[in-house]
Amino acid sequence: MTSTLTPQTPTNPGKAAHRGFINRLTTGTGAFNIIGRRRAFYLVSVVLVVVAALLIIIRGFNFGIEFAGGTKLQLPVTGSVSTDAVGRAVESATGLDSATVQTVGSGASATIQVRTSTLSADQVVAAKQALSQQFGIPIDQVSDSAVSETWGGEISRQAILALIVFLIAVSVFLWIRYERRVAIGAVVAVLHDLVITAGIYSLIGFEVTPATVIGLLAILGFSLYDTVVVYDKVQENTKGLTSLLRRNYQEAANLAINQTLMRSVNTTVIALLPVAGLLVAGVAILGSGTLKDLALVQLVGMIVSGYSSVFLAVPIAVELRMRDPQIRAHTARVTARRTSEGLLMDADGDPVGRAGGPAVAVKTGATQDHVQEPDAPAAGSSLPGSSAAGSLSVGSKPAPGAKPQPGAKPQRPSPGKQPRPAGKATRPQGKRTR
Prior knowledge:
By secondary structure, the protein is α+β, with helices and mostly antiparallel strands. It has helices spanning 13-27, 38-58, 65-68, 83-94, 121-135, 149-177, 180-204, 210-237, 249-285, 290-321, 325-341, and strands at residues 62-63, 70-76, 100-104, 111-116, 143-147, 207-208, 343-345, 351-354, 361-364, 367-370. Among the domains are: 19-62 and 151-326, Multidrug efflux transporter AcrB transmembrane domain (Multidrug efflux transporter AcrB transmembrane fold), CATH 1.20.1640.10; 70-146, 2-Layer Sandwich (Alpha-Beta Plaits). Helices cover 54% and strands 10% of the residues. A hairpin with a 5-residue loop joins strand 7 (343-345) and strand 8 (351-354).
């Protein structure tokens, strides 16, 4: 009997589709064609990187005193002190036309920080006297500190050197653990995260401090963690792949992404919650400082790295891997087999139908229910027990009004009689003698 799968129409298509999407996402059976649409994701990443690079070139960064060098004045917050008035007082006393003023902390411990270019000793004394006289603050409560531009440049060079060493170490590890194609994909994703995060930092105008560099290195580590998780699943799915003809390399990698997609989403969301709390505390409660700088770069970097680990790192590694002659030959064999059998496959390499025929597979939760279709009989021929009008679904009843075929109905024993087992000798019928 030829068997097909008869889909049932949901009573609420919109709600059923929503449940189906959530179920496919959480069970890893979504067959979302991420690898097949990789060029669209490449385009999105290129646009983001170009925009970020333009922001960096045009707007630049708001480097903190630790990098740019300069002088910092700090005074307590009183009822008559405002940031605008403090800035005007310092500029008037020192003859400068730019002073960055911000409030740090809250409550009784709140202070106002004034950052300027490097001031001479006379300019520092003039600024402290102006602040003391105008706001009634004892001059000994106005503190000052200075960082030379040479020291700030040295810090910048050390930060860049640390980033280069980090990338080299990561590349060597991935090269040894996997192969060079995988290492290239991961490093490209890391650089992608770095440029986009820096561009957003330039757009917002937050100050770049040593805490920013620390946070940036932290999110790069987070990006690699998520990428390696997907890489491990790809390696697991493609082990011994060339000896089988069920899936090609691209489909096995796409299946790995679908199987780990929900884990990547959960990891990113859970990691973002405490970081968002730090950012709110750093901006709304404390006003400024190290906490805000650290939280912002981590928040932006985790979002970008969560995207790049799935939609950039793995597709690049897969695309480079598919250039291997052995993988290309295996893909050709798989395609030839499917063409000969007329099978239609989804993005994960599971059968979903035949060319011009009914469906042969249905994804149900975390498993696959496969129904093998025998070859259709030639025109004019029929199979025993099959209807001339068409085939019946597996386990279904005849359609209302359909006539059963002669000989199709099995013989049932009469009530009260048990069928005789085959091969057992029957007792001769006749009169019983006493």
